[in-house]
Backbone:
C-alpha cells in the first residue's frame, strides 16, 4: 500500500510560512525568490541547487520560482516558459507544486 506523505510534508511548509507571516505582522508583503539555473556554457547549465531558505518555506525544487506572502494570500510566480527549454527539461507541473507546498 502506497502511503500519502504529501499532506504531513506540506503542513511543515505551511507552518513555516505561518510563522514568517506572524513575524512580518502583516505590515508588508514578503517576497522570496528561489534560485535560477546558472549557465555553464552556451548549451548547458550547472546542476540546479535550490536556495535553502526558499525550500524551507515551500519545499519546491524548481528553478526560477518566486513566493509572495501577504496578509491574506500566498502565491507562487512561475518563470516565463520557453518552448525550446521545455523540450529538453520538461514543463513545470503546477499541480505538483501546489501539492508539495500547499500554496494555492
Residues:
Amino acid at each position: 500500500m502506497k502511503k500519502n506523505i504529501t499532506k504531513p510534508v506540506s503542513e511543515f511548509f505551511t507552518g513555516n510560512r505561518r510563522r514568517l507571516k506572524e513575524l512580518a505582522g502583516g505590515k508588508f508583503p514578503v517576497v522570496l525568490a528561489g534560485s535560477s539555473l546558472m549557465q555553464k556554457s552556451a548549451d548547458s547549465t550547472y546542476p540546479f541547487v535550490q536556495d535553502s531558505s526558499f525550500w524551507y518555506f515551500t519545499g519546491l525544487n524548481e528553478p526560477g520560482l518566486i513566493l509572495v506572502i501577504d496578509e491574506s494570500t500566498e502565491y507562487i510566480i512561475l518563470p516565463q516558459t520557453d518552448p525550446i527549454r521545455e523540450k529538453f527539461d520538461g514543463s513545470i507541473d503546477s499541480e505538483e507544486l501546489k501539492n508539495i507546498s500547499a500554496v494555492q
About this structure: DSSP finds four helices and five strands in the chain. Residues 98 and 104 are 6 Å apart (CA to CA). The first helix runs from residue 6 to 24. The helical segments are 6-24, 52-58, 83-89, 94-101.
